[in-house]
Design a protein that fits this description.
Among the domains are: 236 residues, Alpha Horseshoe (Leucine-rich Repeat Variant); 125 residues, Jelly Rolls; 114 residues, Thrombin, subunit H (Beta Barrel). 53% of the residues lie in helices and 13% in strands. The strands form three sheets. A seven-stranded mixed barrel has the order 10-11-12-15-14-13-16. Helix 6 runs parallel beside helix 8 and helix 9 crosses helix 10. The radius of gyration is 39 Å and the shape is flat.
C-alpha cells in the first residue's frame, strides 16, 4: 500500500515537473515573441509587467556576456517607446532604462551604454508633458546615475542629459510646474563643492584636454555651480585665472543675475564690483543697466570706467541718455572720453549737457582742466545754440584775461566760436535757394570764369574781416586755412587718444594691486607731462628721482660711452616705465632718455611717496614690487660699475640646436659657456663671445629662450627680450647682454641653466 502511494506521488511530481517545463517553455516563447515584437516597434508587449521585469534581467545578462550589439539594439527600441504617444508605454520604457542604467553605472567600463541611455533620456525629457507614474523615482535614479558618471570621469557621456536638465530648469524647455519643480530638485543636487572645484581646476588649466567639457558642465550645473564660479572669481589671486572666469561666467546666462545681485548687496571691494559689472555687460541685455547705474558715483574711478564700458557694450536706444547722465557723475578724468563719444553722436540734449559742463569748468580737476575744456570746445562747435555761444565766449574771456594768444584752450575756444556763430547765422537766416535761370540764358560767370589772384585775395580778406574782434592779429594774418587745419588737427589728435583712458588701460596690472584709497591717492599724486620730439626727458648724471610711466610715444635710451665702449638699447614706449633704480638707490641716472616723437607720461616724484607713506604704508611696497619685475635695465647696468664677481652662474649657450654661439670662430676663441652677471625678478644680464669689430646694433629687440630652474626644482622655458647690449674696451671679445623676461618672476630666487639664441639673432 505504501509502495502504491509512493509511486502515485512520483507520478504527481513528474507530472508537475513536466507541466512546469512546458510552462517555462511557453513563458520563454512568450518572452522571445515579446522581444521580437519590441524589435518590430510593437510596444503593446510593455503592458505586460512580467515581460518588463524579465526584459531588465535579460538586458543585463546580455551585457554581462559581452553581447553589446543586441543589448544596444533593444535599448534603442525602448528609447523609441519612451517617446510614444501612449503614456503607459512611456512609463514602462523609462522604468526599464532607469533600472538597467542604475545596474551598469556601478561598473567602471560602460561608456557606450551610458552615452546611449543618456541620449534616450534626453529625448524623453524633451517630449514628456505628463507627470507620469514613477516620475519622481526615475528622477532619483537619474540623480544617482549622473553622480556616478561624473565621479567616474564620464563627463562627455553625461553632458547632454545635464544640458537638458538645465534647459528645463531655466524654462528653455517648457514643462509643467510639477515636472519643473522635480527637475530643479534633481539638477541642484548633482554636484558637490569638491566636484565643482575639480571642474574649475580643469577649466583653468589651459593644457587640459578636458577643458571644453569642464566649461560646458560648469555652465549647466545650475545655481550651485554659478555661485561657486562667482566665489572662485572673488577669491582668485591670479589675473589670468580671473580673466578666464570672466570669460566663462557670462555664458551661464541670466540665471547668474540673482547670485551677482546678492554679491553686490554685501558691499564688496572695488575689484569685485568691477568684475561683476564686466559680467553683466557681457550678458548683452540693456535692461540690466539698473544693476550697474548706482556705481556711476562709486568713489573708485576704475569702477566708474567699467560702468562706461558697460554702457557702450549694452548699446541700445538709451545709450546716449545714459552717457549724458554719466557725464554729470563720473570723475573729471573720465569725462574727456565721454565728451568725444557724445560729440560724435550729436543731438540737442548732448549740446545742453556740454554747455552745462562748460559752465561748471571752474570745478574741474586742475591737471585735467585744459584737456577737458579743449575737448568740450572741439565738440560743442558742431552743436550750435545761443547757450553754447555764451558758454564759449565765457571761456574766451577767461583765458584772454590770464593767458597769451598762443594758449591752446583759447585757440580751441575761438575756433569753436567761429563755427558756432557761422552755424547760428545759417539757422536764423533762411535760404531761398539759387535764382531760377531762364531757359536759354546763362548765369554770369557760370561757365569759364577765371579767378584772378586779386579775386582770391578779396575772398581771403572777406574771410578775415568776418572774424570776430577777439581773434588776435596773428590769427587774422594766418587766415582761415590755419584756423581750420592746424589747430583742428591738433585738438582732434588730442581727443582721438584720451590720455587718462589710455593710461588706465596700460597700467591696469599696477593698479590691480592697490586698494581704492591707495589708487586714488597715487593717481592724484601723478603729474602729467608731454615731451616734444628730440626733447631730453632726463640726462645721464641727473640726480632727480622721478618714476616715469609712459602712455604714448617712444623714448630712446643712450649711455655716455666710455672710451672704446659700444652700447645699444631698445627704445621704450607706451606701457613701459623707468626710474625705480634711481628712486631707490639715490644714485645718478646711468642712462639718458629722449623723446623720439611726441611722448606723454605720468610722473611720480619721491617727495610724493614720502608724503603718501604716512596714510598708505603698504603703497610703496606694491609700487616697488611692480618695478622690480618690469623696470630692470638701469639696475642691471650697474654691473658695469661694480667689480668683477667670480661667483656668477655658468650657463650653456645654444643657437637653434648648435652647441655654441661661437662654433664658427677659431678653436682657440671658442667659449661654449656664459656667465650670468646679475639677476632680478624681471630680467638678468650675461656675457657672450663676439668677434672683434662685429656690430651689435641688431641685437636689441630680439627674443631669446632661457632654461630657468625655479626654487622648487621645476625647470621652465622662459622667453626674454634683449633690451640692451654693451661691449667694453677691457673685453672687446665679449658683450654683455641685458634681457627682460616677458613674464617676470616673483623674485630672483632662480637659476639660469641655458640660453638659446635663434638662428636669425
Amino acid at each position: 500500500m505504501d509502495i502504491d502511494k509512493q509511486k502515485q506521488q512520483e507520478v504527481i511530481d513528474n507530472t508537475k515537473k513536466l507541466l512546469q517545463n512546458k510552462e517555462s517553455k511557453r513563458s520563454l516563447l512568450r518572452f522571445q515573441k515579446g522581444v521580437v515584437d519590441l524589435e518590430n516597434n510593437q510596444f503593446t508587449v510593455l503592458q505586460n509587467r512580467e515581460f518588463v521585469d524579465k526584459l531588465i534581467d535579460y538586458l543585463y545578462t546580455l551585457h554581462k556576456k559581452g553581447n553589446s550589439i543586441n543589448t544596444l539594439k533593444i535599448i534603442e527600441k525602448i528609447g523609441i517607446s519612451a517617446c510614444s504617444v501612449e503614456q503607459e508605454y512611456r512609463e514602462r520604457a523609462v522604468f526599464i532604462l532607469s533600472v538597467f542604467t542604475e545596474k551598469i553605472s556601478q561598473e567602471k567600463q560602460n561608456p557606450e551604454y551610458l552615452e546611449t541611455v543618456s541620449r534616450l533620456f534626453v529625448n524623453w525629457l524633451k517630449i514628456e508633458t505628463e507627470y507620469i507614474s514613477g516620475f519622481e523615482f526615475v528622477c532619483r535614479q537619474l540623480q544617482m546615475i549622473l553622480q556616478r558618471m561624473l565621479a567616474a570621469g564620464l563627463w562627455y557621456q553625461a553632458e547632454n542629459l545635464i544640458i537638458a536638465l538645465s534647459q528645463i530648469q531655466s524654462g528653455v524647455i517648457t514643462k509643467s510646474k510639477l515636472i519643473r519643480r522635480t527637475i530643479i530638485k534633481l539638477h541642484s543636487s548633482l554636484a558637490d563643492e569638491a566636484f565643482l572645484r575639480k571642474l574649475v581646476e580643469v577649466y583653468l588649466d589651459r593644457q587640459e584636454d578636458r577643458r571644453d567639457i569642464a566649461r560646458s558642465l560648469l555652465t549647466h550645473l545650475g545655481s550651485k555651480s554659478s555661485a561657486f564660479l562667482v566665489q572662485s572669481l572673488v577669491q582668485s589671486q591670479d589675473r589670468e585665472k580671473r580673466f578666464a572666469l570672466l570669460e566663462l561666467i557670462p555664458s551661464i546666462g541670466r540665471s547668474i543675475i540673482p547670485i551677482l545681485d546678492r554679491c553686490l548687496e554685501q558691499n564688496p571691494p572695488w575689484y569685485v564690483i568691477r568684475n561683476i559689472i564686466i559680467i553683466i555687460s557681457r550678458l548683452d541685455d540693456p535692461d540690466l543697466y539698473s544693476m550697474v547705474r548706482p556705481y556711476l558715483v562709486h568713489k573708485d574711478m576704475r569702477v566708474q570706467q567699467q560702468v562706461l564700458n558697460c554702457i557702450n557694450r549694452m548699446g541700445g536706444s538709451l545709450m546716449r541718455e545714459r552717457m549724458i547722465e554719466a557725464l554729470g557723475y563720473i570723475n573729471d578724468e573720465l569725462k574727456q572720453q565721454v565728451v568725444i563719444q557724445l560729440g560724435n553722436i550729436g543731438g540737442k540734449d548732448v549740446g545742453e549737457a556740454f554747455c552745462a559742463l562748460l559752465e561748471k569748468r571752474a570745478g574741474f580737476t586742475r591737471f585735467i582742466e585744459e584737456d577737458l575744456t579743449i575737448a568740450l570746445c572741439t565738440k560743442i562747435k558742431f552743436l550750435p545754440s545761443p547757450r553754447a555761444i555764451q558758454a564759449v565766449k565765457a571761456v574766451i574771456a577767461e583765458r584772454m584775461k590770464y593767458h597769451d594768444d598762443g594758449d591752446r584752450v583759447l585757440l580751441a575756444a575761438q575756433d569753436a566760436l567761429v563755427s558756432l556763430e557761422l552755424k547760428d547765422t545759417e539757422i536764423r537766416v533762411p535760404s531761398f535757394g539759387p535764382p531760377t535761370v531762364a531757359a536759354g540764358k546763362e548765369e554770369p560767370g557760370d561757365e569759364g570764369e577765371i579767378l584772378s589772384f586779386d579775386n582770391l585775395m578779396d575772398e581771403e580778406m572777406a574771410d578775415t574781416a568776418a572774424l570776430p574782434p577777439h581773434i588776435s592779429d596773428r590769427e587774422r594774418a594766418s587766415g582761415p586755412i590755419a584756423r581750420n587745419s592746424d589747430r583742428d588737427a591738433e585738438t582732434e589728435k588730442r581727443q582721438a587718444d584720451p590720455v587718462e583712458a589710455a593710461h588706465f588701460n596700460l597700467w591696469a596690472d599696477l593698479y590691480e594691486q592697490m586698494t581704492t584709497n591707495e589708487f586714488s591717492a597715487f593717481h592724484e599724486a601723478l603729474n602729467h607731462r608731454t615731451y616734444q620730439p628730440d626733447e631730453t626727458i632726463v640726462a645721464a648724471g641727473d640726480i632727480q628721482a622721478p618714476l616715469f610711466f609712459f602712455d604714448r610715444g617712444t623714448v630712446s635710451l643712450s649711455r655716455q660711452d666710455r672710451e672704446g665702449e659700444e652700447s645699444h638699447f631698445h627704445p621704450i614706449g607706451a606701457g613701459e616705465m623707468i626710474g625705480s633704480d634711481v628712486f631707490l638707490s639715490g644714485d645718478a641716472w646711468n642712462l639718458s632718455l629722449a623723446a623720439n616723437e611726441e611722448v606723454t607720461a605720468h610722473i611720480f616724484d619721491l617727495e610724493n611717496l614720502l608724503r603718501l607713506q604716512i596714510d598708505h604704508p603698504q603703497l610703496a611696497e606694491k609700487i616697488f614690487s611692480y618695478c622690480e619685475q618690469y623696470d630692470v635695465l638701469p639696475s642691471l647696468l650697474r654691473v658695469l660699475d661694480e667689480p668683477d664677481d667670480d661667483n656668477g652662474e655658468t650657463v650653456n649657450l645654444h643657437r637653434d640646436g648648435v652647441k655654441s654661439l661661437s662654433e664658427q670662430q677659431p678653436a682657440e676663441n671658442q667659449e661654449r659657456k656664459s656667465t650670468v652677471l646679475k639677476k632680478l625678478a624681471g630680467g638678468l644680464c650675461f656675457n657672450i663671445p663676439v668677434k672683434t669689430g662685429e656690430t651689435l646694433a641688431h641685437l636689441p629687440g630680439n627674443q631669446i629662450r632661457l632654461g630657468i630652474r625655479l626654487a622648487t626644482g621645476a625647470i621652465r622655458s622662459v622667453t626674454a627680450t634683449i633690451i640692451g647690449v654693451v661691449r667694453t674696451l677691457l673685453y672687446p671679445g665679449q658683450a654683455i647682454v641685458f634681457v627682460r623676461f616677458v613674464q617676470p618672476f616673483g623674485s630672483a630666487s632662480y637659476c639660469c641653466e641655458n640660453i638659446e639664441f635663434s638662428e636669425s639673432t
